[in-house]
Amino acid sequence: MGRLGVTEILVILAVVLLLFGGKKIPELMKGLGSGIKEFKNAAKDDEKKEDKKESETKE
Q1: Signal sequence: where (predicted)?
Q2: C-alpha angle 55-43-28 in degrees, rounded to nearest 5
Q3: In this model, does residue 59 exceed pLDDT 70?
Q4: Residue 17: which of 7, 5, 26, 8 has the closest Cα?
Q5: 8 within domain boundaries
Q6: Taking a C-beta distance cutoff of 8 angstroms, is the pair 16, 25 a contact?
Q7: Residue 34 belongs to some domain of the structure
Q8: First to last CA, the chain
Q9: pLDDT category of residue 1 using cuts at 50, 70 and 90
Q10: Each residue's pLDDT tens digit, 9-46
Q11: How many structural domains are present in the chain?
């Protein structure tokens, strides 16, 4: 029940294309990509801070 088939994915893509148009989709994907990149960078920064705190507490 929870899995999407090929038909459902094609229908979703068609609806997105109709709603946003062909010119707007690349802009949306670019924004999504930059958002994911920022999220990954923030996660790496937090991980580095945690590692630094752990090494300071061991000393």
Answers
A1: none
A2: 170
A3: no
A4: 26
A5: no
A6: yes
A7: yes
A8: 52
A9: low
A10: 999 989 988 888 888 888 888 999 999 999 999 999 88
A11: 1
3-state secondary structure at position 9:
helix
Q: Which of 44, 13, 40 is nearest to 29 (CA)?
A: 13
d(C-alpha 13, C-alpha 33), whole Å: 18
Structure tokens belonging to residue 52: 């630094």
User: Position of tokens 């507490």?
Assistant: 57
Domain assignment of residue 40, yes or no:
yes
Query: Alpha-carbon distance 17 to 23, whole Å?
Result: 9
pLDDT computed for residue 31 by the predictor: 92
Phi, psi of 5 (to 5 degrees): -90, 180
Q: Is residue 44 part of a domain?
A: yes
Burial of 25 (0-12, 13-18, 19+ CB in 10 A): middle
pLDDT confidence of residue 6: 94
